Every structure is written in C-alpha cells, then in structure tokens.
Amino acid sequence: MKIQRNKLTIPSSATVLDCFNTSKNTYSNGSSEFYLLSNDSNSINSIFIIGLFSYLHQNYNIYDESSFIIRTEDLRAFCGYSRGGKSKSIKEELLELKNIKGIVREETIRLADVKIQGRQTAITSKYFNELANAMRENSRKKDGNFGSSYMSIVYADIAKTKNNAASEIAIELCKVIERRGSIGNNQVHISINKLIKRCQSLGQKINNASTNGKKNQVLKNDMMRALTLLKEYTSLYEDYEDIEVRYPNRINLLNSKELVMVNHKGKIIKEKGTNEDENR
Length: 280
Fold this sequence. Notes:
Layout: E1 10-11, E2 26-27, E3 30-31, E4 34-36, H1 46-59, E5 67-71, H2 72-78, H3 90-96, E6 101-104, E7 107-110, E8 113-117, E9 120-124, H4 126-138, E10 150-151, H5 164-180, E11 186-191, H6 192-198, H7 200-208, H8 212-232, H9 236-239, E12 244-246, E13 259-264
Helix pairs in contact: 5-7, 5-8, 7-8
C-alpha cells in the first residue's frame, strides 16, 4: 500500500508569491505584498516556515484565527523530522521564528511569537493569518466562488533535508511550472539569475564562498541536487505528462542569464477528490 505523504501549501498568486522569500519581485500580474526580511547573519529556514504554515493551514482555522496551540510532535511528524541523532531540532526551529520579521503590505511585523510548554507549542502569527486571507481573496472568481489559491505538489518532508538552497530551487521551479503552463504542450523557463535572487539560502552560500570557482561550484552542486529533490520530494513527474527539466550546458555565474527550460505535454487530469484545491 502506498504511504500517504503530506504536501506543502505553497501560495500561487502574484501578490503572495514571495511570502516565504526574502526578496520582493514583480510578476506579470502584480508585485508581491508579502515577503520576509533578510537576516544577514543567519540564513532563514524558509522551508521550515512553509512547513509550519502548511501544517496550520491544513489543520486549523487560519483564516479567522492568528493564535494556535499545537502538539509539537504532530508538527515534527508533518515535516518529516526524525527524533534525536543528527536530525533537525523542531524546537530550535520554532524558537528561531521570534527573530524573523516580514513585510505585509509595507508594514513590518514579527513572523511569529512562540512559546513551548511541555509537549505543546503556542504560536501567534498575524503574518500567517493575513497571508491566508490574501490567498483566499486572490482566488475569488467573478461569480463570488473561490478557486485554488495554492499549489500542492511538494511533499512536506522536504523540510527534513539539510540542503535548504537546493530545496528552495526545487520549490521555485515548481512555482514557475504550476503558474505558467499546466495545459497542453508547454514550455516554461526561468533564468539562473532569478533563481539566485529568489532563493536566499543559495544566494547566501554563493556570497560566502571565497573564490569565483567555489561560488560556481556551490551554484552547480545545489542546482543538480534540486533535480534529485524534484523527483524524490515532489509529485511533478506524476502530475505532468512527459515533463523534462533542462539546465544550460554550463552552470556558472558568468552565464546567469541562461535559462532553465521545462517542457511537458500538460497536467494530468485526476479523478475528482484526488486533488485538494481550496474552495473555501
């Protein structure tokens, strides 16, 4: 029997596309109103933040509430963290949230207040509440009903992987594919330069490398790792017919305007009930 894996809730409309990034970008139908503020001293674990938001979005009334009491163990399991050893510490990740700030429509606010009490964690996040409501409003149709406001093709246990830069690349590629081309024969692309800009962990690793050669090696290694993550931690290859992700022949900073190309023959239509689009 196939094991059911949790999936991330990743916002898919332009005004919220950068909600877990540390850069504000302009898209074809608007610029981002939500984004995180860069922390120059430490890389923000955006993958865990997406995991936490996804857990709250799928298990609590995040539209009407901003304070939640959760079982810490349930969040750990949702994100795929193992216990002990060299696994990431769920409690350390949670406590770090208090040091992160975000922008909501030009207002600077703390990402979350967190208090761990025994086996439970109390979380208050105006950022998450405002984000959820912006997602829903963006999905409102002309007839007043709501369409899908997020993509759900990335498995939540990608949060347990230790290469956040590669995970960020994989998620950005999924966002591009889902937004730009799900019907028929299609080709979508994104430049390496844009990937670096949108992936804070990747940009930080490149900046910290001491030589151009090492910077290029970081870029190449993380982009190649992202290809593996796309196959292991997303349903991309199950959801799209004959999908192919192609990198430029040479991956380096000098060729950062080169494009990552994606070809496919359309999204595979699944039976009703197999896709969890939001319809609130």
